[in-house]
Design goal:
The chain is of the alpha+beta class. The chain has 21 helices and 22 strands. Helix 4 runs antiparallel to helix 6 (about 125-130), helix 4 (about 35-55) runs parallel beside helix 7 (about 190-200) and helix 9 packs parallel to helix 11.
């Protein structure tokens, strides 16, 4: 077809109008991020957000979440209940409007909700669209109202199915995710519980109960101490220098709540929230806090002669944040978020609000608690001394620009393409595996950096010690985007950083050490979705000339049954295989030749790589500190709890 004919044939009939919730089902990732496990669990968060909004408005103090035996999820609250009367414009029940129309809800009416979270009002209708079945019960005015939906379409009108208890009000929503949409439909208790715990800390008047009827697990979260308890939870495996400082105030109809404390650690862990939304990229509220913290502590230190005026050490904002754990929560009536992901607050007036409140309240606290103030200033002074000692070491590993290869480590086998978007680097455990990877790779776009042994545990080290580690210096130079506060992910020389280690205890430890370093000092790589975990196969199963690779025991058993060809479903015993079937267990990457490594682990057409996501900075910080910190008991408890999920050789 010629261009002219194609243009003539492009008429009004070619314009498709998606009715109701069809657009959501057509492009679900636009609304929930993806259709994997992350998007699946986001459905629950969207429903719970509505219940939290009722709590923010002062009408709800209890939320119940249940993973039901049939795989569905139920969320129930004690709020006002979704209105069920006839909508004046839509001429149908308001409940049906809320459940089936995008951008419909009380959140746009500031008389109903002063502040709210969620995805700009599309939340619960999106969940409905992506569910094979949804059932809603509303308790209002002594009646129980009910409506059922199939893939977002009402089966019948809203009806009354019974009488509610005296003074009972609220909403109960049960939904079953649609297997035609989602790659996985099984909810994980821990994933949901982590978000429920976070919400309970942020809303100290709310009690949240979550149960898993399948795995028989239950957790109840209610923290009267709110953010103070949140900070203590985050620092559970650290040694705090003082009790948490709590700041609360309101200015220009913007409530501000902050809790923080210093520990003996070296990294700063600051988590900011706007209307219960975790703003991963910070924003004006975070800037206001940092500015006020630095100014107030500096002023106090000089005023009380804790820093000598002729001192060669000059404290900076970085020094005042070393070892700091803080949670900032603001409630904004009209939040302006940069981008669609709600990860950075843009309201300029909020900076001034937070700054003013922190300046005033923190100054009062320091005057009333001089012993704590002295400990904090001493901690910050030591940080400044360590920073000065690390300055020269930093300069040695900082690249002049993204394309400069003069300072690249000698063991790096770089790729020939210079466009980071099309390049990837494999950080490989050991010289043996590195040699196979170098021979098996596609030299055009794949770079290989082998690491020798285990890198330094950065969770326990100062910056100057970190920069003395040769393997860490090699990673910094190879990635080429700086380090720590100077890190700029836009300058990274590779669009993908892929960690490839052995499937054994040492390999898991090395992978965790590398992830700890990237999280603490190159976090934007992770939040930007540039870090991946390679998935080398665990087994090779061979029968005659036919061979297949298995990435777990279940896949191994499936391949063996296929090779048997007799449809047997009895238990697999690899020590008593039928004649002709040979199983090889790969305990190390070095056991695979270059061709096998390429076919199974490095070929973009056939490989499986897992993207490292950062859903909750607070949860990630807690895990890294638990696994890599000094306190043994939480680590032992974590390992005992999760040992059943491990798939490694001892």
């Amino acid at each position: 077809m010629t261009k002219e004919i194609a243009q003539q044939n492009y008429t009004a009939s070619n314009i498709n109008v998606l009715k109701g919730l069809e657009a959501v089902r057509k492009r679900p990732a636009m609304y929930i991020g993806d259709i994997g496990a992350r998007g699946l669990h986001h459905l629950v968060n969207e429903v719970v957000d509505n219940s939290i909004d009722e709590a923010l408005a002062g009408y709800n103090d209890k939320i119940f979440v249940s993973i039901n035996k049939n795989g569905s999820v139920t969320v129930e609250d004690k709020g006002r209940g979704i209105p069920v009367d006839i909508h004046p414009i839509e001429k149908r029940s308001a409940l049906e409007v809320v459940m089936t129309v995008l951008h419909a809800g009380g959140k746009f009416d500031k008389n109903s909700y002063k502040v709210s979270g969620g995805l700009h009002g599309v939340g619960v209708s999106v969940v409905n669209a992506l569910s094979i079945l949804m059932q809603v019960e509303v308790y209002r005015k002594g009646e129980i109202y009910y409506q059922e939906y199939v893939r977002g379409v009402p089966k019948e009108n809203v009806k009354i199915i019974g009488k509610s208890k005296k003074n009972q009000s609220g909403t109960k929503i049960t939904f079953m995710p649609d297997p035609e949409i989602f790659k996985v439909t099984k909810f994980k208790f821990e994933t949901l519980a982590e978000r429920m715990r976070e919400l309970a800390y942020l809303n100290k008047n709310v009690s949240i109960t979550i149960i898993d009827e399948i795995e028989d697990e239950k957790a109840e979260f209610h923290f009267k101490g709110g953010l103070v308890e949140f900070v203590q939870y985050l620092d559970e495996t650290r040694s705090p220098l003082h009790k948490p400082v709590y700041i609360e105030g309101e200015k220009d109809n913007t409530p501000v709540e902050i809790a923080f404390e210093y520990s003996d650690g070296y990294s700063d862990n600051i988590y900011s929230y706007v209307n219960n939304i975790n703003t991963h990229e910070g924003g004006t509220h975070l800037v206001g806090f940092k500015t006020a913290l630095t100014r107030t502590l500096n002023s106090y230190a000089y005023k009380n002669k804790l820093i000598k005026e002729n001192s060669k050490i000059s404290l900076t904002g970085d020094d005042f944040r070393e070892g700091l754990t803080a949670v900032i929560s603001v409630k904004v009536m009209e939040p302006q978020f940069e981008g669609q992901t709600k990860t950075k607050l843009g309201n300029g007036e909020v900076k001034s609000t937070v700054e003013t409140i922190v300046n005033e309240k923190l100054a009062e606290y320091l005057e009333e608690h001089p012993a704590v103030a002295k400990k904090i200033i001493e901690k910050c002074t030591r940080a400044a001394e360590a920073r000065e000692a690390a300055r020269k070491a930093k300069e040695l590993v900082r690249r002049k620009n993204a394309l400069d290869t003069l300072h690249l480590p000698g063991k790096l086998a770089d790729c020939s393409i210079n466009d980071p978007e099309h390049c990837e680097i494999y950080i490989v455990e050991g010289d043996s595996a590195g040699g196979s990877a170098k021979q098996g790779r596609d030299r055009r776009f794949q770079a290989i950096l082998p690491l020798k042994g285990k890198i330094l545990n950065v969770e326990k080290a100062k910056i100057n010690k970190i920069l003395e580690n040769n393997e860490i210096k090699a990673m910094i130079a190879a990635i080429g985007a700086g380090f720590g506060l100077d890190f700029d992910s836009d300058k990274a020389r590779y669009g993908k950083v892929i960690i490839m280690t052995d499937a054994d205890v040492d390999g898991s430890h090395i992978r965790t050490l590398i992830l700890t370093f990237l999280y603490r000092h190159m976090r934007d790589l992770i939040s930007g979705g540039k870090v991946y975990i390679a998935q080398p196969p665990l087994y090779k199963i061979k029968k005659g000339k036919e061979e297949s690779y298995a990435f777990d025991d279940a896949e191994r058993d499936s391949i063996i049954k296929r090779f048997r060809g007799n449809g047997k479903n009895d238990e697999i015993d690899e020590n008593n295989m039928p004649k002709g079937i040979v199983i090889s267990r790969y305990k190390g990457l070095g056991e695979m030749n270059p061709e096998q490594l390429w076919d199974t682990t490095m070929n973009p057409e056939t490989r499986t790589i897992l993207q490292v996501n950062l859903d909750s900075g607070a949860a990630a910080d807690k895990i890294f500190e638990t696994l890599m910190g000094d306190v043994v008991e939480p680590r032992r408890a974590f390992i005992e709890k999760h040992a059943k999920y491990a798939n490694i050789d001892v």
